[in-house]
Amino acid sequence: MKGALLVAGTTSDAGKSVLTAGLCRWLHRRGVAVAPFKAQNMSNNSAVTPDGAEIGRAQAMQAAAAGLEPEAAMNPVLLKPGSDRSSQVVLLGEPVADVTARSYRDLKPKLMSTVLDSLADLRSRYDVVVCEGAGSPAEINLRADDIANMGLARAADLPVVVVGDIDRGGVLAAMFGTLAVLDPADQALIAGFVVNKFRGDPSLLAPGLDRLRELTGRPTYGVLPWLPNLWLDAEDSLTLDAAGPAPGTTAAAGADVLRVAAVRLPRISNLTDLDALAAEPGVVVRFVTAPEELGDADLVVLPGTRATVTDLAWLRECGLADAVVARAAAGRPVLGVCGGYQMLARTITDDVESRAGAVAGLGLLPADVVFEPRKTVGRTAGEEYGQPVRGYEIHHGRVRFDAGTRPFLDGCRAGAVWGTTWHGALESDAFRRAFLAEVAAAAGRDFRPVGEVSFAAVREARLDVLGDLVADHLDAAALDALIGGGAPRGLPVLRTVLGPEVQ
């Protein structure tokens, strides 16, 4: 089999990342050399490739589904929002500019050649490339300079499958409308649809899908059932509200459950750091936004953020800063990761991201932070509690702590307050269990990790679930034909009321 496919969506969070990963795992298990691709990703959840490039976390997850190490070509353009109006542009793994929405539009034509070169490179090395769109192709206000959806599909002659989330309601109208607003040349590449997150009896949906085919001339390739708590590496914070316990977890040793409260910062990044804690038996993780929600927490986590100084100001405004300081003063455990670690310092001098200059931190660690123009990006390895630890770093802020301060990974600790720049460290199983044992002791909980969970195995099992979804609920033969043969020719063009340019 040789070919490619673009997975588009009726909306953000419709299921594009999940379906792309599922297709990659399904093809990989069949012995097909497959790679994922996303031309442009907007996300503060990122990963580091073996050679030190920064790409979207979802593409690293999809690479794992395909049995591959991630690489920069899989996500040539990554946008990391620092505010509602500006983002950092990461091109082939390296930051190159800070842009507004308008100035980015001026940059996009220059990025298209890099996008197409990256896709061509992957297609030369793999039998199949499964591409993921961004947002929705129905955003026709952005179509003229689009590099991720129909602009990419047209340039690379990719067949397109549109996935819609039926759990939100109105999915049939969204699928019809997505097709209807496109011009004829774009419509010609839309081959069909996939329904995501369906609950109930599929036979009740069948008449709607039959009518959709009558109206559009296009099939629905299958209906994916709603599955709670997949706990996949998230692309953005849209998935946080639906988070729950990881599937298959059991009770820990001891009588108590360990409760973890992770602060949901406005510009939270790399929230997947919490996944390994949530997968640990007997550990309950919840995201919080108010001080009263910290009441029964045994561990408070300040996660990473794309806007350390701005999110620290929010932490103070909502009262969480005072609550965290009071907890630390009482000897109750607090962990800061990357930006959250920087917040725990005495001072933060930032002339790079926020350009706020020197501001006061929470003062819970004997350390000071200075932001430097060059970003630190790389994979890390070390030892803590006598156990091996691996992780990765992505940050501008450099933390300098006082001589004689007790180290913790590359960071430091004071009493029951820990801080580190390492993302992903909690995925190291023995280290995670040792850390949780110390947290439980400091919190006075009768909690003892069971010493059985392999987070790597948990992640692989999740990816297998996605492969099973594709194998069990989609039309495999039709997808094979679509990937290998491209979009069917002669598909009908919808006549709409939008004007003669789309008739």
From TrEMBL:
Domain CobB/CobQ-like glutamine amidotransferase: 259-430
Residue stretches making up the CobQ/CobB/MinD/ParA nucleotide binding domain: 6-231
PROSITE patterns according to UniProt: GATASE_COBBQ, GATASE_TYPE_1
Entry keyword 4Fe-4S: no
Annotated family: Belongs to the CobB/CobQ family. CobQ subfamily.
NCBIfam families in the cross-refs: cobQ (TIGR00313), PRK00784.1 (NF001989)
Full protein name: Cobyric acid synthase
Source organism of this protein record: Sporichthya brevicatena
